[in-house]
């Protein structure tokens, strides 16, 4: 009985008193549900509209250009602005842009240049939402609850995505691609409404500082470049942030073939259609949900370095294994789904300790900038990998690319195992 009580104490129930965090998590779940619908409908729409692997790779790579151009600057503004207000405005704006995509496609007016334009606007908006989301969580939860909170967030968000993926095929058949994308737009508008009812965490934090500390002197006037330099100086002092970031860069580069070529892989290698895309995505999310539940209960029992290494190895092996199902005489989609399940487990084991470590060591006033800087560095490799993938895919099938990249993902682990400072976290 005592052991059971201890497990319950370190489980998700400890988050229940934090009502603002639960409201924020609800908004996240709503948007993730819509995004999962959109991931199937949008990918299929692009594949139908272009029919070109090279163009698909180019569009996927273009999605990350605004992040590389603007994230350092948007992070400084997010640190200055109210995070709640940022999220409301961004969710409303993204809902409008997604609605525009649905309407243009429904009217038969959607062209390739529209896709690039709308992708650029949506990605620019995400440059504000990502640092705001990272910055707001430590204001809603105490530090000792961050690992549990991040694990719980993974489970809830991925469960919402799983429901969306499961419903995507039926919705596309029932109301079409444009109708399904329009539902995604509505989820952003609903999420903005939920955030509007969430108490402002920065107001409560400011009130605590006034009562606990004497009034501070008027701060010096800040500049955008000065804020960026401050974030860079902080990251330089924390070498482990750079190590984990480089690892994320390698993984993102290697995952480009899967992100770009999944529709091609499902149709030509596995012999399935949009339903196969749903099966693949659902399997990935089930793995993430299951692992998120496990991490919430037991993740704090392990060193973050141990989890990161284990997740990296498992992710590389499961990615390599995706090259095998195409050679099977039967049960191809089932075998690929099993690989995606293991990949989902690996991603959660890998990402949860990394995001928790960033939130733990970074001062709250710097989280937006540091989060944006990490995002720029982590995503810098994605456009390169996407362009290369689109070009190579004209000559090599997806399974070969998956197997090669799976091997490459495991190689950095040998370096991490020799770093004593990394093994200490």
UniProtKB/TrEMBL annotation:
Membrane-spanning segments: 54-74, 86-110, 167-198, 239-258, 270-295, 307-324, 330-350, 370-393, 399-417
Topology versus the membrane: Multi-pass membrane protein
Keyword terms: Cell membrane, Membrane, Transmembrane, Transmembrane helix, Transport
Annotated Major facilitator superfamily (MFS) profile domain residues: 240-425
Domain of life: Bacteria
InterPro entries recorded: MFS, MFS_dom, MFS_trans_sf
SUPFAM superfamilies according to UniProt: MFS general substrate transporter
Cell compartment(s), UniProt: Cell membrane
Signal peptide: none
UniProt cross-references to PANTHER family, sorted A to Z: INTEGRAL MEMBRANE EFFLUX PROTEIN-RELATED, MAJOR FACILITATOR SUPERFAMILY ASSOCIATED DOMAIN-CONTAINING PROTEIN
Protein's UniProt name: MFS transporter
Species per Swiss-Prot/TrEMBL record: Paenibacillus ihbetae
Taxonomic lineage from the root: Bacteria, Bacillati, Bacillota, Bacilli, Bacillales
């Amino acid at each position: 009985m005592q052991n059971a009580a201890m497990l319950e104490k370190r489980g998700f129930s400890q988050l229940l008193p934090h009502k603002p965090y639960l409201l924020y998590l609800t908004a996240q779940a709503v948007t993730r549900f819509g995004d999962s619908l959109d991931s199937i409908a949008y990918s299929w729409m692009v594949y139908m509209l272009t029919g070109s692997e090279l163009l698909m790779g180019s569009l996927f790579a273009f999605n990350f250009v605004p992040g590389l151009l603007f994230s350092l600057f948007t992070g400084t503004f997010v640190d200055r602005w109210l995070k709640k207000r940022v999220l409301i405005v961004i969710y409303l704006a993204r809902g409008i842009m997604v609605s525009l995509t649905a309407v243009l496609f429904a009217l038969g007016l959607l062209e390739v240049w529209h896709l690039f334009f709308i992708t650029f606007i949506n990605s620019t908006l995400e440059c504000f939402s990502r640092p705001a989301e990272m910055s707001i969580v430590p204001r809603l939860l105490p530090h000792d609850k961050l690992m549990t909170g991040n694990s719980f967030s993974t489970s809830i968000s991925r469960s919402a995505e799983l429901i969306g993926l499961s419903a995507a095929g039926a919705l596309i058949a029932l109301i079409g691609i444009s109708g399904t994308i329009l539902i995604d737009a509505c989820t952003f508008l609903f999420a903005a409404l939920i955030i509007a009812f969430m108490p402002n965490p920065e107001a409560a934090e400011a009130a605590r500082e006034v009562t606990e500390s004497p009034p501070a002197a008027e701060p010096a006037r800040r500049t955008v470049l000065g804020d960026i330099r401050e974030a860079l100086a902080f990251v330089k002092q924390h070498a482990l942030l750079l190590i984990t970031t480089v690892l994320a860069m390698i993984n993102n580069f290697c995952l480009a073939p899967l992100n770009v070529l999944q529709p091609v892989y499902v149709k030509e290698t596995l012999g399935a259609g949009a339903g196969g895309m749903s099966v693949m995505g659902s399997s990935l999310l089930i793995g993430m949900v299951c692992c998120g539940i496990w991490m919430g209960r037991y993740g704090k029992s392990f060193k973050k370095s141990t989890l990161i290494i284990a997740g990296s190895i498992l992710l590389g092996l499961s990615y390599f294994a995706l090259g095998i199902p195409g050679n099977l005489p039967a049960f191809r989609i089932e075998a690929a789904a099993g690989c995606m399940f293991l990949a989902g487990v690996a991603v959660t084991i890998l990402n949860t300790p990394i995001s928790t470590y960033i939130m733990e060591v970074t001062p709250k006033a710097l989280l937006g900038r540091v989060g944006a800087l990490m995002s720029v560095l982590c995503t810098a490799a994605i456009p390169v990998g996407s362009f290369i993938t689109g070009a190579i895919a004209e000559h090599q099938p997806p399974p070969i690319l998956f197997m090669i990249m799976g091997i490459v993902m495991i190689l950095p682990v040998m370096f991490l195992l020799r770093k004593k400072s990394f093994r200490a976290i």
